[in-house]
């Protein structure tokens, strides 16, 4: 039974998760009945468009903006000498409805850790001695059993894949056979996502046979595919794909010119694979994962048979869809292959010159006097040129998400994208040549067309330029891409900080300057996001995440969580203990709080995928800060008069900025915490109540999926379970200063 679409599709990125308690360290296949995943996700949501988020959230970066603007009342010397250098040391008769994007395959246990052994790596120092490099107590040393448990935890994580003789290509092709009689009981589609709107996106039996031919062309699969999905089911899945794509900011395929008779069957197979993973019925998404494997081999065959196919747009789009599915599939083999196979497509596109400026879709403009034939020809040429742009932008965002999530170097930098900014979204979504022409004419009347649209580099260097052409470009996609461009600079900064020794004052001074300038630029850009994106909470949350990661090294966060084992966790604890006493840490937790604030305002059922990861990173940051500073806050009844006065000011991190916030950031005065809802009211939870803090983060996940009797998406549920396990650690149970009702 296909779940109803009460988890609406969102323009979120690919998602990663795992199902709690399942070991996927070695899977050779995904046979029916092998895994027991939830087959329904019945969360009711509203229209999942960023455009519908009309909550005004500018305060998150207003502090930095005040300082940059020279507001004397701000009194937050982010960029002055208070910087602590010590830290720098379908027509179908089957009415399928679909669940959220990537719901059922979200099995990526990105932080599946042995929490008992982690606790031994960072015993909280309650002695009052806060020396940055003071060794941990001897009782914190790991026993062989503890080391073994930590190593086992890392083996279960997605960063380590140990293939077995049972792991090989095309081992899941039996999943291509569906018993469609078992999925005949279908529920109505969500009113917000009506796939009937895409009923023109359908294939015929001849094209179905061509798709089946792609599967047989791989070899070694004939005996494993005794049957293939019916035409009705395939058409429904294709319509699901395009319905879900319509909600994405960086959607990949041009719906208006979709013509199966002129499309490569490999691309159609990729579309079916991607559409399948939007449906929570296990037999369907398993089929999607099996088809993803077919696409990878089929595209490779096309490249080998004819090298000119490395420049073919449809082939590249098929492979891009394959990477999207595989990287976040949750199965280590497919994830590793997808991660490693991102390099070839990047090289192919780069060497084709598509990163350059020779393809300019804006030069192919329609005229009101164009004949129908000429207009159709112009539209298709424009759509192809625009598709190349959006393919590259999609690949760039995909690579950035992979870099942040997997903590690996980015493969594409924004500086490489030298083509003009993409055209307005309504032009891209036009269903016909005449609609495209009329919309283009409307845009020209509203704002005189600039002779040459700016490039991404010109826009990032002068944001005023982007605002001046906002009616002539896809401002929301441009803003999203530009924002992702900052990650490459953040990554380089953290690498440089590790590369140069602390004793090298010249380089350290350069790093301080680089950090200050980067933070200022990112803060200024973030103030433009509400107007450029119609106040997209997803984009605001991403900007706050990037500012947080600039001040809290994500590698240290991962090492502290046990990524590299016990010794590395201890070293990370030393570094983070020193970090917790710097202005850097206070700025980091401020932006972490703003991430959580934006997450509260995200449209229902949209905290999934990369958005859920952002919430996790933010909660991890404030949790670590609370652990490292616990001894600074004695329990009630043990406060001196001065300490009581010091602890009387509440600094609410997930609220708008205030004078008290500015004082805390500059002088460390006050008690940082988060405001949570409880029994219909509000309460202040200090960060040193670390277990309460993690519980608040879990509540954010739950509140975004308000149908309590239904399960959360696997990624969200998995991250929530991890936060719950961290919450239960002995080191986290330090809530001596209880919450206070506001």
Radius of gyration (CA) equals 26 Å
Structural class: mainly alpha
Largest sheet: 4 strands, mixed
The helix content, as a percent range, equals 40-55%
Q: How far apart lie the N and C ends?
A: 46 Å
Low-confidence stretches: 1-62, 64-159, 184-191, 636-646
Please state how the strands of the largest beta sheet are arranged side by side.
Answer: 1-2-3-4
> What is the molecular shape?
globular
How many extended strands?
A: 4
- The total of helices stands at 28
The percent range for strand residues is: under 5%
Average pLDDT, to the nearest integer? 74
Protein described:
Residues 1-62, 64-159, 184-191 and 636-646 have low confidence and may be disordered. The protein has a domain at 590-633 and 646-732. The protein has a 4-stranded mixed β-sheet with strand order 1-2-3-4. It has helices at 62-68, 85-88, 115-119, 144-156, 205-218, 231-245, 265-276, 282-305, 313-327, 332-340, 342-351, 372-406, 425-428, 433-446, 456-461, 463-468, 475-499, 505-526, 529-532, 537-551, 554-560, 566-579, 583-601, 610-628, 641-646, 659-667, 690-704, 714-727; strands spanning 650-652, 671-678, 681-686, 740-741. With 742 residues, it is mainly alpha-helical. It is globular and about 75 Å long.
